[in-house]
Structure formats: structure tokens, C-alpha cells
């Protein structure tokens, strides 16, 4: 599904290049549940952004479902992202001037789904995440944990082929966090490929293998969780 070959990310400065990622080569099979771990500053979130096609300033090769991402124009990468990927951001990235309902509808609007079906999908998702009572509220009216739940709901609502999650339970209490991880496990069993960044050993145990990053390098062969 995904192949990275010698992917590197760096910034040019007065003292030369500062590398964020170094020679990243990685294969992710369809249906995998992969965990990326490592200390702060290791490059985990940067790698996730590249996988999600949100960051185009890198070198190397990236194949995704047979598409040569490194050769694609930015707008074509955006379309690929919309079609296949759901992203859970560490800082939520909800749209401030849209209600919870409208935030959930956004990813569905990118697909050829009839309005009645979209409405049903949003209502089902509101119910699944126990946020029906929040449907007409704006992000600023929600707690951090509630915003995180909405962000996760938005990422999975369109049943994406690939779910990328950056510390998906970081702002949730333990029971909510377990619900989210159990949901990810169920979605993975139903065919979704999941790549999560986490510091939590508990969350990592839900995955099939672990990739350890340090100072932008993959430390060792991916290990089984």
C-alpha cells in the first residue's frame, strides 16, 4: 500500500542543513496497524504529515496505492488525501466557524455522496461517539477532550482506507481513550490501515508492529507489538 524509499526532510540554515528525517525506507501493507514511537523531536509527526500528503517539502520516493506521490503535483496529492486518508491531528484542526455537525460533514462533501446519505452518516457518527448533544456547538464551546472526540469522528466518518493518528488519545481520559483505541482496532479488523504516533505503550499494544524513531532515523527493524 505504502512504500517509502530514502525519504528525507531538512531545513536550510546558516550552518547548513538541519535534518528532521534521514533516509527513511519503510513499507506498510494494506490492513496493517502500525505504531510510530520515539522521543520528542524524533520526527514522528513529520513522518505522519508526509504519509498524509500534508507536507510536500521532502526528498526521496513515496508510492501510495500505485501512485508515485513524489512525482505528483500538489493539487493531485490533495485529491489523493481526500479520497483515501483520514487524519487525527494532535491539535484537532477543527474548523472554528463550523458546528460539530458541519465539521463532520466536511470529509463527506469531498466524496460523491448524496446529501440524505451524508446526513444519515453524520447522525450515526454523532451517536457512535456520544456527542449528539454537541451537534450544534462550535469548537470553542467544547472542552479539549470533546474536541478530540470530534476530530477522531471526523477522521473515520468516511471510512477511509488509511487512518493517520497523531497522539489520538492525548486529551482524553482513560475510558474515552480505550473507546477510541477499541474503535481503531475494529476499523482495522474491517480493513482500514492505521498508522498511529503515540508515547503510550498501552496504545502501541493495539498495533501489529512498532517503528522506533530517534533523531530522524529509524532505529531498528520494525518490531512486533
Task: Describe the protein.
This protein is of the alpha/beta class and 225 residues long. The chain has one domain (30-57, 73-224): Rossmann fold (3-Layer(aba) Sandwich). It has seven helices and eleven strands. It has helices spanning 44-51, 74-84, 100-109, 115-128, 144-156, 174-189, 201-204, and strands at 2-13, 16-28, 33-37, 59-64, 67-68, 85-88, 162-166, 193-197, 209-214, 217-218, 223-224. Strands 3, 6, 7, 8, 9, 10 and 11 form a seven-stranded mixed beta sheet that branches. A four-stranded antiparallel beta sheet has the order 2-1-4-5. It is globular, with a radius of gyration of 18 Å. The model has no long low-confidence stretch (mean pLDDT 92).
Summarize this entry quickly.
Helix content is 34%, strand content 28%. It is of the alpha/beta class and 225 residues long. Strand 7, helix 6 and strand 8 form a beta-alpha-beta unit.
Number of strands: 11
Helix content: 25-40%
Superfamily at the CATH H level? Answer: P-loop containing nucleotide triphosphate hydrolases
* CATH A-level architecture: 3-Layer(aba) Sandwich
**CATH fold annotation:** Rossmann fold
| Radius of gyration over C-alpha positions, nearest whole angstrom | 18 Å
Main beta sheet strand tally, sense and closure:
7 strands, mixed
Mean pLDDT, nearest integer? 92
| Structural class by helix and strand composition | alpha/beta
Identify low-pLDDT runs.
none
Strand content: 25-35%
Overall geometric form = globular
Q: SSE order in H/E notation?
A: EEEHEEHEHHHEHEHEEE
Q: How many domains?
A: 1
Q: Terminal Cα separation, in Å? A: 20 Å
Q: For the record, what CATH class applies? A: Alpha Beta
Number of helices: 7
Amino acid at each position: 500500500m505504502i512504500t517509502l524509499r530514502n525519504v528525507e526532510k531538512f531545513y536550510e540554515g546558516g550552518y547548513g542543513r538541519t535534518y528532521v528525517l534521514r533516509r527513511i525506507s519503510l513499507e506498510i501493507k494494506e490492513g496493517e496497524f502500525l505504531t510510530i514511537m520515539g522521543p520528542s523531536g524524533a520526527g514522528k509527526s513529520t513522518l505522519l504529515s508526509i504519509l498524509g500528503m500534508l507536507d510536500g517539502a521532502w526528498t526521496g520516493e513515496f508510492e501510495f496505492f500505485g501512485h508515485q506521490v513524489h512525482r505528483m503535483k500538489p493539487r493531485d496529492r490533495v485529491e489523493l488525501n481526500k479520497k483515501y486518508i483520514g487524519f487525527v491531528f494532535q491539535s484537532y484542526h477543527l474548523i472554528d466557524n463550523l458546528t460539530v455537525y458541519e465539521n463532520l460533514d466536511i470529509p463527506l462533501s469531498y466524496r460523491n455522496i448524496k446529501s440524505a446519505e451524508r446526513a444519515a452518516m453524520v447522525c450515526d457518527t454523532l451517536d457512535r461517539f456520544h456527542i449528539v448533544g454537541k451537534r450544534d456547538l462550535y469548537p470553542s464551546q467544547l472542552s479539549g477532550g470533546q474536541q478530540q472526540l470530534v476530530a477522531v469522528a471526523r477522521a473515520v466518518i468516511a471510512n477511509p482506507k488509511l487512518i493517520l493518528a497523531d497522539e489520538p488519545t492525548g486529551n482524553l481520559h482513560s475510558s474515552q481513550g480505550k473507546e477510541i483505541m477499541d474503535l481503531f482496532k475494529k476499523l482495522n479488523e474491517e480493513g482500514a490501515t492505521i498508522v498511529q504516533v503515540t508515547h503510550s505503550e498501552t496504545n502501541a499494544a493495539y498495533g501489529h508492529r512498532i517503528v522506533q524513531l530517534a533523531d530522524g532515523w529509524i532505529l531498528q527493524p520494525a518490531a512486533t507489538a
